Amino acid sequence: MYIGSVYDMGWGYLHAFGPVESNSPPDAPTISGETNGNVGEEYWYAFTAVDPDNNPVSFYIDWGDGTEGWTREHASREKYYYEHTWSEQGDYTIRAKAKDVLGEESDWATLEVTMPKNQQSSSMWYLEWLERFPILQKILIFIGNI
Q1: N or C: which end of the chain has fewer CB within 10 A?
Q2: Which burial class, exposed, middle or buried, applies to 137 when counting CB atoms under 10 A from its CB (0-12, 13-18, 19+)?
Q3: How far apart are CA 49 and CA 106, in angstroms?
Q4: pTM confidence score
Q5: 44 — alpha (psi -120 to 50), left (phi > 0) or beta?
Q6: 104: burial class by Cβ within 10 Å (0-12, 13-18, 19+)?
Q7: Distances from the Cα of 92 to the Cα of 28, 86, 95, 110, 116, angstroms
Q8: Phi, psi of 135 (to 5 degrees)
Q9: CB-side exposure of 111: number of CA atoms within 13 Å?
Q10: What domains are there in the chain, each with its CATH number?
Q11: What secondary structure does DSSP assign to 19-42, as a single string?
């Protein structure tokens, strides 16, 4: 039995129902995106997985900072983008695996990411402190130090 459906912006899917003779797990996903960035900035990463049986897949994404979870289902072989923002500097490992609609899971894939300290945020305390002393702020502006 086949049933058609539409999801998000007119994307169509054809669902097949019937006995399953065999099912293979999806290949480990590929992850691509920035490997160096700044704390507090948003970055987009592309995830793709191929299921040999062409079943839809969802991704389990572990961003390496305690944020993790499953995505919605996607078509096999399609590239999907997810964004993330790290709040602390450090080295992170993005880990992802794919699971097909029949429950078979892939191996893990990884991407190493480094988030150095955001220079702007490190000087924010100075600017906030300076706002408490408007006369000192005007003097420093006058002599060209800020």
Answers
A1: N
A2: middle
A3: 9
A4: 0.69
A5: beta
A6: middle
A7: 19, 9, 9, 10, 11
A8: -70, -45
A9: 20
A10: 24-115 (2.60.40.10), 118-146 (no CATH)
A11: --S--PPPPPPEEEE-SB--TT-E
Sequence-separated (6 or more) residues with CB below 8 Å from residue 144: none
Q: Which of 36, 41, 47 is nearest to 84 (CA)?
A: 41
Taking alpha carbons only, the member of 26, 30, 44, 38 closest to residue 95 is: 30
Query: What is the per-residue pLDDT across 99-130, written as a single tens digit (0 to 9) for each?
Result: 999 999 999 999 999 998 655 544 556 666 66
Which tokens is 112 given? 């190493």
Calculate the average pLDDT of the chain. 84
Q: Tell me the residue type at 18.
A: G
Provide the greatest CA pair distance for the chain: 80
Per-residue tokens: 66: 């305690």
